[in-house]
Amino acid sequence: MGNRINKKLKEEGKLLSIYFTAGYPKLGDTVEIIQQLEKNGVDMIEIGLPFSDPLADGPTIQQSSTAALKNGMTTEILFDQLKDIRQSVSIPLIIMGYFNPMLQYGVEAFCKKCQEIGIDGLIIPDLPVDVYHEEYQETFEKYGLINVFLITPQTSEKRIRFIDSVSNGFIYMVSSASVTGAQSGFGDGQQAYFQRIADMKLNNPQIVGFGISNSETFEQATKSAKGAIIGSAFIKHLNGHGVEGISTFIKTIR
Amino acid sequence: MKTYQADEKGYYGEFGGAYIPEMLYPNTEELRQNYIRIMQEPSFKKEFDQLLKDYVGRPTPLYFADRLSRKYNTKIYLKREDLCHTGAHKVNNTIGQILMAKKLGKNRIIAETGAGQHGVATATVCALMGIECVVYMGEIDIARQAPNVARMKMLGAEVRPALSGSRTLKDATNEAIRDWINNPVDTHYIIGSVVGPHPYPDMVARFQSVISEEIKWQLKEKEGRENPDYVVACVGGGSNAAGAFYHYLDIPEVGIIAVEAAGKGIDSGESAATSALGKVGIIHGSKTLLMQTHDGQITEPYSISAGLDYPGVGPMHANLYASGRGEFISITDDDAMNAGLLLSKMEGIIPAIESSHALAILEHRKFKPEDVVVINLSGRGDKDLNNYIEYFNL
Lengths: 254, 394
Prior knowledge:
The complex is a heterodimer of chains A (about 250) and B (about 400).
Chain A: H1 4-10, E1 15-21, H2 30-39, E2 44-49, H3 59-70, H4 75-81, E3 93-97, H5 99-105, H6 107-117, E4 121-123, H7 129-142, E5 146-151, H8 157-166, E6 171-174, H9 188-199, E7 206-209, H10 215-222, E8 227-230, H11 232-241, H12 246-253
Parallel strand pairs in A: 1-2, 1-8, 2-3, 3-4, 4-5, 5-6, 6-7, 7-8
Chain B: E1 11-12, E2 15-16, H1 25-40, H2 42-56, E3 62-64, H3 66-72, E4 75-80, H4 90-103, E5 108-113, H5 117-129, E6 132-138, H6 139-144, H7 146-154, E7 158-162, H8 169-182, E8 187-190, H9 200-208, H10 210-223, E9 230-234, H11 239-245, E10 255-263, H12 274-277, E11 279-283, E12 286-290, H13 315-323, E13 326-332, H14 333-347, H15 353-359, H16 361-364, E14 372-377, H17 385-392
Parallel strand pairs in B: 4-14, 5-6, 5-8, 6-7, 9-10, 9-14, 10-13
Antiparallel strand pairs in B: 1-2, 3-4, 11-12
Pfam families (chain A): Trp_syntA (PF00290)
Family (chain A): Belongs to the TrpA family.
Keywords (chain A): Amino-acid biosynthesis, Aromatic amino acid biosynthesis, Lyase, Tryptophan biosynthesis
């Protein structure tokens, strides 16, 4: 069986991917959030494994992580919540988290568990491509996992080519030099960056993240990219409207 | 030859490296490619040495503590980093890094601080150079360390509260890293210890290595030999220790003793003894020993000394511990406070509580009468007066 991420990327149209922090707002919300997102037409989901010190995240995701940990979320609880997820959900699922909790679980054990559950990929912001390539790539591939790397407007062309060569799913294109969290639309500089990357004709399609919060930014981001990821804006919405409000939120995006 | 220095990828044995988000890669890469070359430029060296001499007040004395030596029946020398401008060794590093930032064309400085010592040392060199300075400090620490907050403000720095997580040093570090992600081009991040992603641990250790460079010639003058039997320093992140150990790392006959803060006791749940309580993991971009939950969440350490309560330890020290090259001892709050009082009464020197931890090993470990023991007195106790007053009802 090919990876669900690769199949999804081959479909026509632009992909909407949603990030949420597992264990937030309530510890037991994980499965329902995933089911609701699929039901409302979301194409792919990033399940955030909360970490005490999320370096690359802005205030919204930090606060949701702190709250999720306070709610009692752990790696083992998350895996337990997800153990039957493939009986009800068929879109690609990615776990996004920082490296230390995975290291403590055991990288191979973590990958194995992901495969058993039906997780398709991982995004680990603080595991650099060089270290992955030298130490972990074989393990990830053994368990059929796609590892997704980030690029930014500052990433050199040479490094982007290297990341492209190590990737086998998509490239996570960070919209600007920033941590996560909404900003007010994309300027000419960012549009030029999106276009520059599109013109590189990389092997892996690109999905834009950071700063996507509404239909306008989603459209701008996906003009030249295959899709876009919404995180902080969705968490803010969950915060205000709870799990019941998911369909309203998705309808405002597309 | 086996070395305890960093290799070219920034590893000390299995520890170190650069586990950073891609957003930080260009920032650290620029530094990595240039730091050794810049440090070796004659114009850089000249300015660095000049400032250490005329502005910081180096060389700091290597003082033979006669009364203390008689009490403990061994030869004790104190390396007087407490006499540096701003009151501690921290300024050796900030002088080096501000010059580095200038060479790299940066016009804005950010830093993290716990108790405020590194923040003050950073604000000081920014004032000296006329460069904009933002210091991140945990909201809780800001409340605890009002005099240092005021010092930074007088020196023209902006102090920004870190409101996330546990609102202490580790969160201030997170906030500084986030600021650097958001400002990748014009900003240099002055990390205050031998922690963080490569090349920081090595760069900071090199700037602090002036401490052991001086010990060598000073001891030669006094004892006729460059190498002591033991060199002792306290370790939080570990920058004063890195400086004191640096030129002795690869000389096996010099014993290296690292003193950590046991807080209220190793098993009390309120401790900062990372080597005893930590496991291998990733903190602030470095693979090292750190205090964490079973699940890999970083925990909040405790010590009466604000400069030692960091949940990790520099990768150099993690390797010294794991390899057995260094002897690691942890000292409780009580023992440190008493050692601080003893030095005050016997030698007329009021030490920082951090440094009191290093001094406390004299009660805990036997040395031979002919041993030469150099203790790095990393800072002075002015900043800790309130703690001393409270603890001893002065």
